[in-house]
Amino acid sequence: MDGILGLKKVNSHCSISEMADFDLSKLLDKPRLNIERQRSFDERSFSELSIGFTRGHDHFEGIYSPGGRSGFDTPASSARNSFEPHPMVAEAWDALRRSLVFFRGQPVGTIAAIDHASEEVLNYDQVFVRDFVPSALAFLMNGEPEIVKNFLLKTLQLQGWEKRIDRFKLGEGAMPASFKVLHDPTRKTDTIIADFGESAIGRVAPVDCGFWWIILLRAYTKSTGDLTLAETPECQKGMRLILALCLSEGFDTFPTLLCADGCSMIDRRMGVYGYPIEIQALFFMALRCALPMLKHDAEGKEFIERIVKRLHALSYHMRNYFWLDFQQLNDIYRYKTEEYSHTAVNKFNVIPDSIPEWVFDFMPTRGGYFIGNVSPARMDFRWFCLGNCVAILSSLATPEQSMAIMDLIEARWDELVGEMPLKIAYPAIENHDWRIITGCDPKNTRWSYHNGGSWPGLSIFSHNLLILMISYYNEKDLQLGQHHFLLSPQIIVLVAFNREVELEFY
């Protein structure tokens, strides 16, 4: 079965329990894996993305392709897999199934957390759009696409609701951040309550949820081979409404999306207002996913033209202005300021003295990453894991940039991973900066939650980066042994999984 972004799923030749012993030598000595590599976005001709390009050709190599169940709760799985499943895997599937939410007898998603020990449930008993995506990918890989289809259709239906916060009406294409199913045992009825930001802490609309919906629709299409769902008038309209929101013309001078703080996975005040890397990477990936799914009718062609133009501009902007490596850091350090000309080098008038001291120690001579934010006179040099992972998976990063990101992770493994799963951001904000930037948020104290906390849920992206990088090494005839850490993320996460208790992080 194909893996995410069209990469072939390769069966392991060793057991998970063997991998947990951290013995990488056996894995490194195996024959080279034969994995097809998706061409990067730069390697494709943009003419292929033109309106005249035939509908049958797949612009975006699939997130999944049709295949049998890959789970560990089915008889077929034991015959196909060469190893016995670790008990942890069965426990994970059991927890996932206990988190299922049903609407009129049909599963429509999974709740954010099943930690019954907590007295304050808040909204963790709801189905979050972004949080369901990793669960949805697991169900697709396990040959259970119905729940994903139900989720896509139900959230699409919620998109059509009128959305108001006080006396202000939200855009028609906005997707809900979450929804809750209320069961009335007396009347035997189910009711859905959706939250578009009017009930959320901070009252921020989820900009990323529309992008996740398009990405998941593409994943469902590639996994099942079912093109009919994406081609329905309802799904076509839903995609166009989302795209209309983010492709609308305004006062922006950049192709990136201007966002408020707390509008994505980091849904609390963390100083990510402006043009956060996570939103830009998801925006790019959603545009690429929507491109082959839009029909070539009158309405669809108009959006296809706008998408192609935006992809050109967005990829150029991100790769040139958000990218930071050792050489670029030296260039910024020597920037001249107050340049008034279209030929200005310091286009955003960034003051070199604003570069934080930790960056010079953090940046290796070999490696690089997309920084958190770029706006007039401001660069947020923090590392954000999800944005950089999605940048690689969507080919927003060039092959050279992708390898540089992995080089950085290897060089700064202790800071970004250590003995725990991946950190959502680095470094943590503390002391006076924490008071100013987070507003003294007690939940986002240093190295907690969004402020540098460990999020095992990010492991799905590191796992797919592992496959992507192995395929790249094979194609370039490089030695995988040069980067032992490529095999380490999944092992670290597997070991740490049993020790973690805060289920919302999954």
Automatic annotation (TrEMBL):
The keyword Metal-binding does not apply. Invertase that cleaves sucrose into glucose and fructose. It catalyses: Hydrolysis of terminal non-reducing beta-D-fructofuranoside residues in beta-D-fructofuranosides. Its EC number is 3.2.1.26. It holds the Pfam family Glyco_hydro_100. One of its GO terms (molecular function) is endo-alpha-N-acetylgalactosaminidase activity. Gene3D superfamilies: 1.50.10.10. Signal peptide: none annotated. InterPro entries: 6-hairpin_glycosidase_sf (IPR008928), 6hp_glycosidase-like_sf (IPR012341), Glyco_hydro_100 (IPR024746). Belongs to the glycosyl hydrolase 100 family. Keywords: Carbohydrate metabolism, Glycosidase, Hydrolase. One of its GO terms (biological process) is sucrose catabolic process. PANTHER family: ALKALINE_NEUTRAL INVERTASE D-RELATED, PTHR31916. The keyword Hydrolase applies. This is Alkaline/neutral invertase.
